[in-house]
Amino acid sequence: MLIRDLAARCLAVVGAPWFSIAGFAVIVLNAACLGLETYSGIEAAAGPLLRLIEHLCVAGFLVELLIRFGACLDRPSTFFRDRWNLFDMLILAAPLLPGVRENVTLLRLLRLARIVRAFRLFPSLRVILVGIRRSLPGLGSFLLITGLVLYAYAMLGWMLFGAAQPDRYGTVGQAMLSLFLLLSLDDITNILQSGREITGWAVPYYVSYMVTACYLLTNLLVGLVLTALQEAHEAERAAADGKHRGDPIPVDDSPQHQIAVLREALDALERQLERVPEVPSPRSFR
């Protein structure tokens, strides 16, 4: 019963709005300290203070993780099934590993990775992260199409401008790099004008490339990401609706959990039997 009461209290703390706000404030404070260390003047003047704030932020992260573990104290396996909890444990424990704590670059990367923890605190940020993850399968097909388009136009560019502009179209690799940089349409006017001085095919070449690569492929990428974000938003909303309706929460069916439940039931039964008054035997009335 004590474990369940403690888990219920920790769960209430985790579900409170101020808990997410406090966690986000610690993340912002940690990120600010990490940025201030890049200024040599501030580092020289307030270096010890920044170290103290960093240690306090780590302590805050540890307290948050312990509270989340306490919320799953009656079923610990659910804590370790959450990938965010595993990520938090990795971020906190990695600086203690040999070979990592001596590497300043790795330590700074780990401190920078703490900013990613902000995604778990707010549903809107989680939707964006889930949307990006959902768009990865379609992104592979998009990259394949983009690569084929760039390769085709690179070969055409090499045939049209390779001799006159070897710095841009001397090889197919240079041509693909030039066309990739041209996706931003930076300096397209001068590039088109210089191409017209070489061949009359420059106008249809660059116009068709802009329509195909810069507009069609870009809109395809935007549509792919928006579709994934919409699916992630619908999944998040369905999960929230199920939680509000009181759908059954998955329980831990492991043998250890069942044994713990049986022990608690036996303890409760023994306490009830102790409170029952003793009934006199029939021989005492003779």
TrEMBL record:
Transmembrane feature ranges? 12-32, 52-73, 142-161, 205-229
Protein's UniProt keywords contain Transmembrane helix: yes
List localization entries: Membrane
Occurrences of domain Ion transport (ranges): 17-235
SUPFAM superfamilies per the UniProt record, alphabetical: Voltage-gated potassium channels (SSF81324)
State if Mitochondrion is listed as a keyword.
no
The identity of this protein, by name, is: Voltage-gated sodium channel
Q: Which organism is it from?
A: Actinoplanes campanulatus
Q: From which lineage does this chain's organism come?
A: Bacteria, Bacillati, Actinomycetota, Actinomycetes, Micromonosporales
